[in-house]
Every structure is written in C-alpha cells, then in structure tokens.
Write a structure and sequence with these properties.
The complex is a heterotrimer.
Chain A (H helix, E strand, L loop, with lengths): L5 H32 L4 H6 L11 H8 L1 H34 L5 H10 L5 H14 L6 H25 L3 H9 L4 H12 L1 H17 L2 H6 L8 H11 L4 H36 L1
Helix pairs in contact in A: 1-13, 3-13, 4-7, 4-10, 7-10, 10-13, 12-13
Chain B lengths: L7 H21 L8 E5 L6 H16 L3 E5 L2 H14 L5 E4 L2 H9 L18 H4 L3 E2 L2 E2 L2 E7 L1 E5 H6 L9 H13 L3 E3 L7 H14 L1 H11 L5 H15 L18 H6 L3 E6 L3 H9 L7 E4 L13 E11 L5 H11 L1 H11 L8 H4 L5 H11 L3 E4 L1 H4 L2 H15 L5 H15 L1
Parallel strand pairs in B: 1-2, 1-3, 8-9, 11-12
Antiparallel strand pairs in B: 3-11, 4-5, 6-11, 7-9, 7-10
Chain C lengths: L30 H29 L2 E2 L9 E2 L3 H8 L1 H33 L5 H13 L2 H11 L6 H8 L15 H26 L3 H9 L4 H12 L1 H16 L3 H6 L11 H11 L3 H27 L7 H4 L4
Antiparallel strand pairs in C: 1-2
The chains are: A mainly alpha, B alpha/beta, C mainly alpha.
C-alpha cells in the first residue's frame, strides 16, 4: 500500500460518498415515489407530490392485496417461471452433458446450431411463434408461454452447463463406469449433484427471464385467466388510469416479489449474470 | 453451501413443485377460461362498470352460467381485440362499434349471426342497427348511439368573451385565438390515442365534400380530391395555432392527465367527442365536471357542401362469438330488459337506442338529451372512420391524422397514405 | 466440493430407467442413448426457435393478413422493397443508432466509473453495490408504468420535483418529439447501469493485485497504472458489454411500448414496436415478417462482424469459436 495521509484519504472518501449518494438518489427516487405514492390518495398526490403521506392511507395497498386478480397474477407468474425453469434446466443439462462428455459425428455442428440461437432476438420470432402456437392450440394456455420461453433459454444455459461439465475430471466418469454406471446413472447420480452451484445459477437466470417476460405473454395470453404480473400491471394502469395512487400501489406490490427474491438470491443472480455476460 | 438454493432438498422441492404444477395445469385447465361466458367491455369506470358486473352476476345466477367479466380501457381493448381476432379466439361477448372492423371479424368467421335470434330486437331503433348489419345480417346489438360534437365549457368561453358557439370554421378559429389570448387552453386532445384526432379530419372532410363525397371516395378507395387535401390543410392550420393542452402529444383519453380529465377539471375549453364525453369527464377527473357544459355541432366550412345536420357518430354495442353458448345471446336481451336498460341509461348516462325513448328513459339528463335531439334532426350520419373502414385503413387514418397534427405529414402525404392503404386492401 | 462420497451404484441393482438397457458397461454409449439425452432439448429448440424463424422468412415473401389459413399471395421481394422505403422503419434504425451511441458515450462510462469507485474499499460499498443493481431486477413493463406516472404532464412527479426547486418545467417529457428519446435513454440508463457496473466490477476483480503492486514499485502513478493496466485488461469485458448492449437495443420493446407506445407519431418507435403494430394491430403479417427478418439480419450481421473483427481474441464459447474448441 502506498502511503496516504489521513487527510487525503478523508478527501477521497468524501468524493466516493458524494458520487455514491448521488447515484443512490437517482436509483431510489422513482421507487420511493411509488412506495409513498401508494400510501397517498389522489388529492395528496396532486397537492403534496413530494412529502410524506399525511395521513397514511393504506386503502390502495389493501385493495390490491384483497383483489383476486393480483394473487392470480402472482400465481401465474410463479407457475410459469417455475415450470419454464424446470424445463429449460432439465433439457439443457441433458444436452450439455452429451456435448461435454461424448464425441460423435455432427456434435460441433449441432452445438453451433444451439449456440446460434443466442443470436435470435426474441422479438424476431414472436409473430411466427404466435401463428405456430395458434395451430398447436396453445394460445391462452400457460404452455404457450412456457415452451417458447424454455426454448429460447436453451442456448445460454447449455453453454454455461457445458463449460462446467467439461471441467469435471475424466477419472470421476471412469470410476463410475467401472462401478457399472451407464450414462443415465452417471448423469443423474454424480454429475447433477456435483453441478448444484451452477444449476442454481442457471435456474436463477431462467426464473428472472421468465418473470420479466412481457411480449410473449402479451400476445399469447388474451384472456385474463393466466395473466402474469407484467400484463396485469399494464392492464391495471389502463383500467384505473385516472386513479394514480392505486396504480402506484399496484406497481409497488408487483415489484416486491422481485425485490425479495433479489434479497435472497443476490449472489446467484449476480454470478449468473456475470458468467452469462462474460462467457456468453 | 450455506445458500438454501444449493441444498439438494431445495432442488428436489423445486422440481417437485414444478411437476405438481404441470400436472395441475394439464388436468385443470386447457387454457380456456373456466367461466361459461367471457365478456369484454369498455365500461371500465364506475358507475357502469359495477352495474354491468351486477347484471352479469344476476343473469348468471338465474341461468346457472358463470361469467368472466373484463372491463378494459378503450385503447387497450382495441389492441387486445386485434390480437384476439388474429388468434381466432374472441371472447363470447365483446364490445363492438360495428362497421369495417366488425366486418373483418365476421369474414374471419369469429362472429355469430344474430339475425332472428334477439327477442328484444323490436325495442331497438332500426337506424341504430345499421352499423352492425353486414350483407343484410345482424352481427351486433347496440345499447347506445349518439353523435360526435364539441362539448364546451361555457364559463371558460364566457371568460374569453365568447357569447355564442361558432357556426363556421373561421369563427371557430377566431374563438380558438380568443381563448388562447385569455390564457385558456382552447382544446383538450388525446394525441397518443390517435382516434380523438381523426374526428377533426373526418368532420372537415364531411364539411368540405359532404357526406356523399366521403362515401363516394370510400367506394372508390380514392381520397385524392381537392376537398380531402383542403381538409388536411385545415387540420394542419388548426394544429399550427397550438390550441391543445400542454403535453397533449403523449396524452391518452382516459388517464389522470388525459383529455377527458383535463376537460373535467376545467383546464381546457372544449373537446370534440362522442355522447359519452360528459360522463367520462366526471369519471376521469374525479370531479363533478364543468358546471356549465354546452354542446355545439362541428362548424360548417365556407364553400363546402356539408351541413351541420350531418353528424359523425356511432354507438356502442355487443357482438357474440361464433362459438359462444346460447346464453350469451340471451344475455344481450337481458341487458335490454326495460328495467335493466333504464337503470344503465340513468347510471351510465347512455344515449338510448330504444324505439320508445320516453318509455325507458322518461327523464333523460340534459347532456344526453342534446345528443338525442341532434340525432333526431340528423339528415345523415357517418360512423367513425376508424371503425367504419377495415382496420388497416382506419389505422392509417388515425396515424396520419396524428402526423398532420404534429406537423410531421403534409396533407398530400396524408392522402397518398390513405390511398395506398385502400389499394393494399383490394 | 463437500460431497463426501459419490453415490455408489451397486451392480446388482436393476436399471432404473427404461431407456437404459443392458448397454451399460460399454465405454461408449450407443446412439440411442445419446439421442434420448438430446431429443427433448432439440425438439423444443427446433419447434420454438428454428421453425418460427424459418416460417417468418417464408411469410416475408407473401402478402398475408394472418387470419387463418396459409399465405397464398406471393409478392416476391415486395415487402422488403416497401420496408427500405418506409420512413418509420428507417426512423427505427436511426433511433437504434442513437440509443447505441448514447449508451457507448454516456451510459457505459458512467457504469465503468461507478465500478471503479465500488472497487475501492470504503465502508458501505457493499450496500451501494446491492442498491445500484436494484433497477435491473425490476420488470421492464412495470418500470415503464411507473415512469409514465413520473413523467406525466402537469401533475407528474418529475415536474413536481422541479417545481419544488423553483423551476417551472414546461418540458414535455414524453410528449416532445425532440426529447422523448433522451428521456427514454435516461430511463434505460436507470434500468441498466447497475447491470453493466456489475459486469465491469467482475472484470476489474479479475485483474491480479500483483500487477498494480509491481507498477507501484516501478514508480507508476495511479493514473499511469490505470492507463497501462486497468484499461487494457478490461478490454474483454468492455467489448462484451458493448456487444450485449447493442443486441439488447435491437430488441427493445417492453419499456418503450408501455411508456409511449412508440409515440408521439413514431418519435420513440423501435423495430420491435413497428413489427408488433404491423403484425398484430394492422394484420399486415407478411410485412411484419419481413421486418422480423430485417431485425434478425441486423443482429446476425452485427454479431458476426463484431466477433470477426473485435471479439475473436477474447471470446470463449461463442459461435465462431465454439465449433473449433476441442
């Protein structure tokens, strides 16, 4: 370490804090606006946009929480995210296993095909997907959202898992083979348990991707039975367009699950994004 | 290994949950709504929103059917209907304005032919059925009909020193300037929604070339005549005066700072809107609306052939999906049962379509009465163009009007865009 | 690794799965086994990724309203010809360029600076890092609903805030055609700077401290070390982030669609919004498919070009290099 005087360090730290707090204000202000706005009524929003609510008005939040629609949307979002994650991780793990540990003709071609999927912006496919889903009668069904999402999640998941599966020493596999384990057994009993950390990472990525998805549910789910939260929020903001405080309460509640999840799975989310981002 | 996500149990549990959910979905739901009748309507504001829900509940319990009622904001409704029509699966009962949009849905085989199926048809004024009649068959039932005109805040007009509503376009422009000089936003407009803007262009065309001229142009798919260019130029000239409320470019009709709320709060002097405007002003602003709200027809244009008794208008109605249960059809007539319909008219301030208005609405409110009177003396009506024409053309007209108002298109651009859209439709 | 013992497989136990018959002992599993591993993923991928893209490429040569049936009205390259003359499409490209350029010269440097800042040790930096990432985890569509209220005219939060510090804002945040893109860019920055910052931070943490120590011994100043160590070694991260940022900008939809719908009069429209409007609202499915294909080509050409000339040094697991490795 270089010699730094106390004064210089103090100065440096002051600079850090100024920058950090400025950024904090930038990040937090809109969220606080939603949080506090939900506790106001429209009169207060108009006359006292900046201050704390007075009185605190919990009606907007309780109205939303008491509505069946909100919980139905939470359920749909969770359901669609869980099933998508399960399918994409299961399918990717099997494919990545073969790509990582067996040599066969056409392997590289096949892998390149999957990897090329990363190049397809989802928006490109949404129109033809809609028509394909229509002919499969998957419109207005959660699987109309789940299956395409899972399919588009494959490339990145396969690439990450393949890299990890390769890093497992060949001796492990040889030992298993000597013990009589076939590929299925080796895969399910040895490889997957060893891959738990990276599976958690790709699962978190898939969950987040599905949770935030908007365009696909927008075109697939016309009827509200299976609406996800992003659809619900936009619909709610149209229906209650003139009731700003209530919309803010709904927005805040819709953000909450993601924030809580982030609080718990922050490490995986970030490690997933940095692997996905830098190795992708 | 402290993280719970890494524990094998958590992974197994997640897998099990997913598998469970999969089975639940596979068994429980084929993607269709569980309800027998899905109903999409655009009465997304109380009091009518609750009234509609109540009617559905009552009808449901009497007839042992379940309802999934969805009140959807107008613009969102149009978007979702577009996608639903594409998907080949429309709700059992849905809002419609009739015209070319309905015709395209009919052509795609999505809409039930209601001819001879509605017992209540005799109660409805036959003129109101026209927009819903395609090739002699009835595909929708109106519950309200009216006209578009200027709703104006008489107090603000008085503040600007205007004592009578304008009768000609020149007077109208003079009044706009007077209002501006008095520091009042003359006109409320929902620029982002596009459709409110297209009323201006349509009316100016109706006033320059007349209703006949407009119909002839639509017949030929050719909007190149001088009157059309002139109408476009007049829209552009009006917009150049900057008569609209600040931020109108991104405003929608129904939001807290949107067109009707601005009117309701007395922040703009007038809006060109249909029969629902007074009610929407109250709903969207959360106020009682302007104390003195007046109504005047779209002014005439010097040298034009149109008259003030030719109205742009239309109504609101419901259509039934081709594969909807019979109860869905019965439900339409349930709405028209005198007691129910009278209640809807009073609470929602609808403009009745009944043959005998006095019977269902003995004391109609003053605003609705103005519209009823206008209809009664009308010499001709034109359905809103964005509904009357096929969606691709109506969409172009809406979009092009926005372009005119924002100075992004010339009247000539406008005409060629509309002509191209007609040509593509052939 | 905390697993103490790999699960043992006793030879006497019967095979667990139906697809796993006596072939077991063979060192090389048969084609059937391999196929059973690949099949579910491959079917899913072909059906929902490859097929739609091929289908779009086919439909792009037809005029079709998409309402049932199959396209029959073959028009050749007509849709593409109309596309390159469509001012909305050209405007979309221009706005895409604007977003990309602004990202490169404004957003990425900010993220980079904050990453360097948070790499320093000072009390509370973990909390800041957590906080700055929060906008990224929020759903775009939900964020857009919120910001529509923040920037709503007259009564919006932004205007109230400005009024409070004595500025009577006449800014039409979302209604002024000349500034709406910059407001959107501001929101995109709010949403994504934390993500880029985290990537930069990860890149910075991968640089060994020894390098800096050695440089310090050689008498290098902080600025010199930054120029000759940090910048060059951050190269791969920077190039990757630029790549992600561009590809992300091409598909921009959720945020803008909910915020402005692309208006006023196309002033904030993106490629994906134009495609959505034409395909789903105007029933011009053939034309919208041509637009989809154009988006695809833009992404593809950019990706290949970028990998060929910029990334080929440092990308692992990418398309062009994936095939060559091992």
């Amino acid at each position: 370490m270089k010699v730094t005087t106390r004064r210089a360090r103090l100065l440096r730290h002051t600079g850090f804090y100024i920058a950090a707090f400025a950024t904090t204000a930038f990040v937090a202000t809109p969220i606080l606006f939603a949080l506090l706005g939900g506790f106001k009524d429209n009169q207060q929003l108009r006359e006292n946009a900046l201050g704390l609510p007075s009185p605190w008005n919990t009606g907007n939040y309780t109205d939303v929480l008491a509505s069946g629609a909100f919980w139905q949307q939470v359920f749909s979002s969770v359901f669609i995210a869980l099933v998508t994650t399960f399918i994409v991780v299961a399918c990717s793990a099997m494919v990545a296993f073969v790509f990582a540990r067996f040599a066969f003709r056409g392997r590289e071609g096949l892998f390149t095909l999957f990897a090329a999927g990363m190049m397809f912006p989802f928006a490109v496919a949404v129109l033809p997907l809609f028509i394909i889903l229509r002919s499969f009668e998957l419109l207005n069904s959660p699987f109309g959202v789940i299956l395409p999402q899972a399919a588009f999640g494959l490339p990145l998941t396969i690439i990450i898992l393949r890299t990890f599966f390769r890093s497992i020493p060949a001796e492990v596999e040889e030992a298993a083979t000597i013990d009589g384990a076939g590929p299925w057994l080796f895969f399910s009993r040895i490889l997957l348990p060893m891959a738990r950390p990276v599976l958690a990472t790709v699962s978190v990525l898939a969950l987040v991707g599905s949770w935030n998805s908007f365009l696909l549910p927008l075109v697939v789910l016309q009827k509200s039975t299976w609406w996800t939260l992003p659809l619900g929020v936009t619909q709610f903001s149209g229906q209650y367009a003139s009731d700003t405080a209530k919309v803010l309460a709904f927005v805040m509640l819709a953000m909450l699950p993601a924030l809580v999840f982030y609080g718990f799975a922050e490490r995986h989310l970030i490690s997933g994004l940095t692997t996905g981002g830098t190795k992708g | 290994m402290r993280n719970p996500l890494l524990r094998p149990r958590a992974l197994v549990a997640a897998g099990a949950a997913a598998a469970l959910a999969l089975t639940a979905a596979a068994c429980g739901d084929s993607g269709e709504s569980d309800a027998d009748i899905t109903w999409w309507h655009i009465q997304n504001q109380d009091p009518l929103m609750s009234t509609w829900q109540e009617f559905a509940d009552d009808f449901g319990s009497e007839n042992d059917v379940t309802f999934d009622v969805q009140p959807i904001e107008n613009q969102a409704f149009k978007d979702r209907m577009g996608t639903a029509s594409q998907s080949g699966d429309v709700p059992d009962v849905f809002h419609t304005w009739g015209g070319g949009v309905l015709a395209e849905q009919v052509e795609a085989g999505l809409v039930q032919d209601l001819t001879g199926k509605l017992d209540c048809i005799d109660q409805i004024n036959p003129i109101a059925l026209e927009p819903y009649t395609i090739d002699g068959k009835l595909y929708g039932m109106p519950f309200d009909a009216g006209v578009v005109g200027f709703w104006y805040n008489m107090d603000l007009f008085a503040d600007a020193g205007i004592d009578a509503p304008p009768a000609t376009w020149d007077e109208f422009l003079t009044d706009v300037q007077l209002l501006k000089d008095a520091g009042i936003a003359p006109i409320a407009l929902a620029g982002a929604d596009q459709w409110p803007g297209h009323y201006y262009w349509t009316y100016l065309v109706m006033r320059t070339v007349g209703l006949d001229g407009l119909e002839a142009a639509a017949e030929a798919g050719d909007f190149s005549g001088d009157g059309f260019v002139q109408a476009g130029q007049m829209v552009a000239d009006l917009a150049a005066m900057e008569p609209f409320q600040p931020g109108f470019e991104s405003a929608t009709y129904g939001e807290a700072d949107g067109q009707s709320a601005v009117m309701g709060e007395g922040l703009a002097a007038m809006e060109l809107m249909g029969q629902w405007a007074p009610q929407a002003q109250r709903d969207n602003s959360g106020t009682d609306g302007p104390a003195n709200l007046g109504f005047f027809p779209f002014p005439t244009v010097e040298g034009g052939t149109g008259t003030t008794t030719e109205w742009l208008g239309g109504g609101n109605g419901y259509a039934v999906a081709a594969d909807a249960p019979d109860e869905a059809v019965d439900f339409l007539c349930y709405l028209m049962e005198p007691e129910n319909y009278a209640r809807a008219i009073t609470e929602g301030n609808l403009t009745p379509v009944a043959v005998d208005t006095a019977a269902v609405a003995p004391d109609l409110n003053a605003d609705s009465q103005k519209v009823v009177d206008a209809l009664a003396t009308a010499t001709g009506t034109q359905l809103y163009l964005d509904q009357a024409y096929p969606p691709a053309i109506g969409g172009v007209i809406n979009e092009a009007t926005e372009g005119l108002i924002l100075g992004q298109l010339t009247p000539e651009d406008f005409v060629s865009m509309v002509n191209e859209a007609w040509a593509a439709e052939e | 690794m905390t697993t103490t013992e790999s699960p043992r497989v006793s030879p006497g136990r019967p095979a667990r799965r139906g697809g796993d018959r006596p072939r077991k002992r063979a060192g090389r599993p048969g084609a059937g086994t391999l196929a059973s591993f690949i099949a579910p993923g491959l079917v899913l991928f072909l059906l929902f990724v490859i097929l739609p893209v091929l289908f779009a490429a086919y439909v792009a040569f037809f005029r079709w309203n998409g309402l049932g049936g199959v396209p029959t009205d073959f028009v050749g390259l007509e849709n593409f010809r109309a596309l390159v003359q469509d001012e909305v499409f050209l405007g979309d490209l221009w706005r895409l360029g604007l977003i990309v350029v602004l990202s490169l010269i404004v957003q990425l440097p900010i993220s980079f600076g904050l990453a360097m800042l948070l790499h320093q040790r000072f009390p509370g930096r973990t909390a800041f890092r957590l906080l700055f990432f929060v906008p990224y985890v929020l759903t775009e569509a939900v964020t857009a609903v919120l910001f529509r209220l923040v920037f709503s005219p007259r009564r919006g939060f932004a205007d109230s805030l400005l009024a409070n510090i004595g500025v009577d804002s006449q800014v039409g945040w979302l209604s002024d055609r000349d500034i709406v893109m910059f407001v959107i860019f501001g929101i995109l920055t709010w949403k994504f700077f934390g993500f880029h910052m985290i990537l930069f931070l990860a890149g910075r943490q991968n640089i060994p401290d020894e390098l800096y120590e050695a440089a310090a011994i050689d008498g290098a100043t902080g600025a010199q070390a930054f120029r000759s160590i940090t910048l060059p070694l951050m190269g791969p991260t920077v190039r990757m982030i630029v790549f992600l940022s561009v590809i992300g900008s091409v598909q921009l939809f959720d945020l803008v669609y909910v915020l402005t719908g692309g208006g006023p009069f196309h002033a904030s429209e993106t490629l994906a919004i134009t495609m959505y409007e034409q395909g789903f609202q105007r029933n011009q499915v053939g034309y919208a498919s041509a637009l989809s294909i154009a988006m695809f080509l833009i992404s593809l050409v950019f990706a290949l070009f970028y990998q060929r000339f910029v990334l080929n040094r440092d990308l692992q697991g990418s398309i062009t290099t994936a095939g060559n490795r091992s």
